[in-house]
Write a structure and sequence with these properties.
Length: 230
Amino acid sequence: MTDAAFDLGSDDIPALSTGEQAYERIRHDIVFGVLQPGQRLPLDRLKSVYGVGISTLREILNRLAPQGLVVAEGQRGFQVSPCSVTDLKELADLRLLIESNALAQSFQAGDVEWEGRIVAAHHKLARMEQRLLAGDESGTQAWKRYDFEFHQALVSACGSKALLDLHAGIYDRYLRYQMVFFVFWGPTSTEDHKALLDCALRRDAAEAQRLLHGHIHGCIDMALERGLVD
């Protein structure tokens, strides 16, 4: 998940071209459920929403197709990738495989700077989760941003940019399911994150991997039990 996808106006990132801004906005709107699964994406309508021409929109949507966020339908145009239980389970397994591997490497190589990043990321996430537990749902997008930043911090010392990029891409696709179908699952999520923090600080990769498995599949089980995804 790029920072630009969350905050196009940040002073910490370079100014983006109109086309890149449109790309980030469309990607953000798909991931966060503004553009719904299976929704058709007529170019003549999108150009007025995102302020770019049809050729630029076609290029953007073709960029998003290999990421699993858009389906190109040949002469019929484009649609937001539909959601399914099979796809969700595959994404969860991919995320678990990639993140577990990166966790082990990161826990072994992490230094005091890495520990500081984890503690700082967890502090923001825990504060937001307390707001959600109190019934304030106004910060749902910020909560998922902090959730990503925490998991990203955990694996950030793995030493492989390719692995981190792969993790971020899979996380975005998994996040789309969370934003469209999942709801905050309360104290269990908060407890899992605190336990993962403790594992990181004592470098217990095996326990962290076990917790991560339960954390990810617990979300899926909850979604299926509540009939949130078919």
